[in-house]
Write a structure and sequence with these properties.
five-stranded mixed sheet; alpha/beta; single chain; about 40% helix
């Protein structure tokens, strides 16, 4: 962006965050994921050696409707209450099934009308019939490659905005008017002031 527009790095960085702010405007919310829904969680953050390596990383939860939309959210931990709250806030009562890995926080998430099936990654089990979490793990791969390749680095302070950008772009992956819709969002989003961004 800096090279294309011929502006200072700070100006390009601010502009990119204003675009991300617009992508997060009018978020996709509510328990609307249906069909088969995959759930997973990952750690995102900088590298840090030693026994406290997790101090520089943060948990992100993801849910994806097979062939449909994705939801991404930074979460404080992967305890049962946190994980199951994320599931309840995103999955519709009409959903057919939940597919996850073997994390114990998902135990008990099934209902009389919605089954829960797992794959055991710690035992090198990745796919059992149509049970897998490959779709949501593909989203993690996109996100982490973006950090290394496009963003180069990412502050935890701004992580939510980066997640909103990925979520919006992924959910509009088949939209032939994605550029037009992005411009419309930018026009209807309050400007993100630089002082607010760095506060």
């Amino acid at each position: 962006m800096k090279r294309t527009l011929g502006v200072q790095y700070r100006t390009a960085w601010h502009l990119c965050h204003r675009i991300r702010e617009a992508m997060g405007n009018d978020p996709f919310t509510g328990p609307t994921l249906v069909g088969i829904v995959e759930f997973d969680e990952t750690m995102v953050g900088g590298k840090k050696r030693g026994k406290n390596w997790r101090d520089n990383k943060h948990w992100v939860a993801g849910a994806i409707e097979r062939g449909g939309k994705v939801r991404l959210e930074r979460i404080p931990d992967i305890r049962k209450g946190t994980i199951q709250d994320f599931v309840r806030r995103n999955i519709s009562d009409e959903a057919e099934a939940i597919y996850t890995d073997e994390l114990r926080s998902y135990v008990g998430i099934e209902t009389p009308t919605r089954r829960h099936e797992t794959v055991n990654h710690s035992a090198e089990e990745w796919v059992v019939g149509d049970v897998h979490t490959n779709s949501v793990e593909g989203v993690w791969s996109l996100f982490k490659r973006s950090i290394v390749g496009s963003f180069h680095k990412m502050s935890v302070k701004h992580m939510d905005r980066y997640l909103e950008e990925l979520e919006w772009r992924f959910n509009n992956r088949d939209n032939p008017h994605i550029f037009r819709d992005a411009l419309c969002r930018i026009m209807h989003t309050d400007p993100l002031q630089y002082q607010e961004l760095i506060a």
